[in-house]
Amino acid sequence: MSFSLTHEQEEIRSVARQFLDDVSSSDALRAVESIDAGFDPAVWRQIVELGWPAICIEEEFGGLAFGQLERTLLMEEMGRVLLPAPFLSSAVLASDAIALAGGADARRELLPRLADGELRAALVAGGDLHAAGAVVGEVLAREADSGWSLSGRGGLTLDGASAEVLVVAGAEPTGAVGLFLVAQRAPGLRATTVTLMDPTRRLAEIHFDGTTARRIDEGGDAGPAVREALTRATVALAAEMVGGADRCLEMSVQYAKERRQFGAPIGSFQVIKHRCAILAVKVDAAREAVLLAAEILTDGDPADAEIAASAAKSAAGDTFQQAVYDAVQIHGGIGFTDEHDAHLFFKRARTDGLILGSPEQHRHRIAELLGV
Amino acid sequence: VKPDGFTDGSVLGPELGLVPESHPFRIEFRQWLAGNVPTEPEPHKQDVLVSFRRQWQRTLHTGGWAGPSWPAEYGGRGSGPLEQFMYYEELALARAPEIANQPAVLLLGPTLMVHGPEALKERFLPGILSGDDMWCQGFSEPDAGSDLAALRTRAQLQDGEWVVNGQKIWTTWAQYADWCVVLCRTEEGSERHRGLSMLIVPMDQPGVTVRPIVQMHGAQEFCEVFLDGARAEAELVVGARGDGWAAAMTMFEYERADQGFTCHARQLVRIADIATTIRGLRGELESWKLDRARLRLAELWTRAQQLRRLNLRAAVNAEAGRRLGPAGSVIKLFWSELEQDIAAFGAELLGPAGLDLAHPWTAHYLGSRAASIYSGTTEIQRNIVAERLLGLPR
To answer: Is B307 on the interface with A (CB under 8 A)?
Structure first.
């Protein structure tokens, strides 16, 4: 249970906070805007040195073999500073898909390279924004004499253009799901960067046209294992969003203590005070939903994982959205400017709200899982 | 998909490792409840309802299940917070009635245990737990609600007895009570929260007049209590004379902490009932109404799971001896809003049938509006969260 963190978990969190405060200044966030890949390679190297991409990878593949809870703690810290990095795409989505759905050879070959940051991968699964509900969007896989080839729309994919390889869920003619590896420059692959208002994320539209691919699962149906990877990523992203919401609350409270009008700090007025209190309750409760899901992923009943992940993502989504509205409002004019960071959180909340499913989508899934 | 999920065992949601469904404490209580929970529904008429709940308290007491948190020497089980958490979940799952003396068992009893004196513990605790003595709590006054320290009821010692004068309001179950704990000013010249005492006043005497207040859903749960020269023995003081505020604060803390273990399970049972209703409406409701209902249900279920987690956190902290503090206000806010939203949703699903007060959901809907007023209003709780948790200036 995560009600009190172990010494090691506290350590992970405090190291992360200190590091992220150093590298994710307001200026650094803005500098990334002009970088196509959407992250600073020097910062990514430091993240690799800290061992973060290795956190959930098994020891035999060069990983640190921590549980989902530890990764959740890291994600919340990353969310607090809107860290622009290929962590969610490569170290969560792609790594987990390989760890859960990949065959023995692929795991032995790829996971150590993902763990030590030598390789950055993106996952093409779940259609647009990994949110379609189904594991495979429109990607069809065919086997010919020369090997497998992929065709069809991969959909909007997180870091799809900057990743060195794509890990792709494709449907065989039988309907079974296979997991494939595609090199970024493979013939027949189109990865087109999409313009986003959120400067801290990068999305690419992926399209395959007879693209040569290497099959990396054990055969059979990799669908359930890829779905499990998406479920884990949903919880990880929810944690990141709680971090973002918490930071918005913190910024707003700080501003409300400093900004004076009518001879008093605006935080002494109940309209502001209560707005902050309402948000504080929401953030606290959203974090509990995320921790509950992380615990279920770690050692709970696997049958509960999906519903808990959907609860976490919908709660985190609603909360982050409210938090950015409140942050802009409480900061007044300055909160509406380009100079202040509030709009960066505002824009990230919109992107994150859609990646891996909107709150409404997850509520629809919860209702299904409840048998209603 | 759990085909017939969300009935029976899965009502509570995902299994939580610290309080598993198969915990021996749960199983023992569940078996006892199966043989003892009244099968007939709660009566509508209030006088009959109160006797019914009193009888249920006696049944629990005889079975040794009336006060899980009370120490064995006072007739309880000495259960820790995690067992209490499971206790209230099992009560809700079994759809057990409430007990008649709930506030006294949960609040006054434990406060008396903390503040004493010893003689009063021995004299009053057994009757509180058995339900033989009914109690009410005289705190609020017409001009002292959220601002409790503004209270004006006074007591003076005359000929070795307290003589109490003043008026209390919103006093729950005063018309059935044998005793009332009265917070009043006993020290001449004192102000605000200093100089108050918590007295125990017998209700059956000429100086006490009770006038029930009819609430918006027709019930008369609370009352006005007029104290005109009401008498109480000199030694009937909870805690120290002149330091009644400390005892009152202890009681408030129990009030908030206690919600931490009791408030989510009955909500989850209500949500499961709504799920059954929605399933029954499939094919009957227009698709947009059905979709909307499904999404709303999922949202309320999610919030109830969040509340369950907040409560478990409170129980774990209490188990470790940590005080609840302002986290109690977070729980009160989260819970009261959820209770109101569930009640409104359940009533709304009834359609025109929900316009009839005789329908249990309708009465619950009206009654639920009190949840954001009693035990510290939403506005007061938000002040507490803002000032004590976030450090915003007063």
So the answer is: yes
